[in-house]
Amino acid sequence: MRAIDIKLWRELWDMRMQALAIAMVIVSGVAIFIMSLSTYDSLKETRDSYYRVHQFADVFANLTRAPMSLAQRIEDIPGVARVETRVVTYVNLDVPGFKDPVSGHMISLPRHQERQMNRLFLTQGRLVDPSRDNEIVMSVEFAKAHQLELGDKIWAIINGRRQALTIVGKGMSPEYIYQIAPGAMFPDYQRYGVMWVARKPLASAYDMEGAFNNVTLKLNRNIEPKAVIEQLDDLLKPYGGTGAIDRHDQLSHRFLDEELKQLQNMATMFPIIFFAVAAFLLNVVVSRLISLQREQIAILKAFGYSNLAVGVHYSKLILMIVVFGIIIGTFLGIWMGTSMSELYSKFYSFPYLVYELKPWVLVSAGIVSIGVALIGTVYAVRKAIKLPPAEGMRPEQVAIYRPTVIERWGLQTLFSQPTRMILRHLERRPLKSLLTSLGISMAFGIMMVGGFQEGAINHMIDVQYKLSQREDMMVFFVEPSAKDALYSLQSLEGVEYAEGLRRVNARLRHEHRSYRTGVQGIEPNSELRRLLDANLSPIHIPKEGVVITDYLAQKLHLKLNDLMTIEVLDGKRPILQVPVAGIVKEYVGLNAYMHRDTLNHLLKEGNVISGALLTVDEDAQQSLYAKLKNMPKVVGVVEQRAAIDGFNETMEETILFFTFISTLLGGSIAFGVVYNSMRIALSERHRELASLRVLGFRRSEVAFILLGEMALLTFIAIPLGFLIGYGLCAYLAFNFDSDLYRIPLVLGIDVYAFSALVVIVSSLISGGLIWRNLAHLDMVAVLKAKE
Amino acid sequence: MPTTENNRPVFQVNQITKTYQMGEVSVHALRGVSLELFQGELSVLLGASGSGKSTLLNILGGLDTPTQGQVLYQGKELSLDLSQATEAQLTDYRRFHVGFVFQFYNLIPSLTAAENVAVVTEIAKSPMTPAEALELVGLENRLNHFPAQLSGGEQQRVAIARAIAKNPDVLLCDEPTGALDSKTGIKVLEALAKINQELGTTTSIITHNAGIASMADRVIKLTDGQIVDIQQNDSRIQAQALSW
Question: Which structural domain range is residue B121 located in?
Answer without folding.
Answer: 39-68+87-241
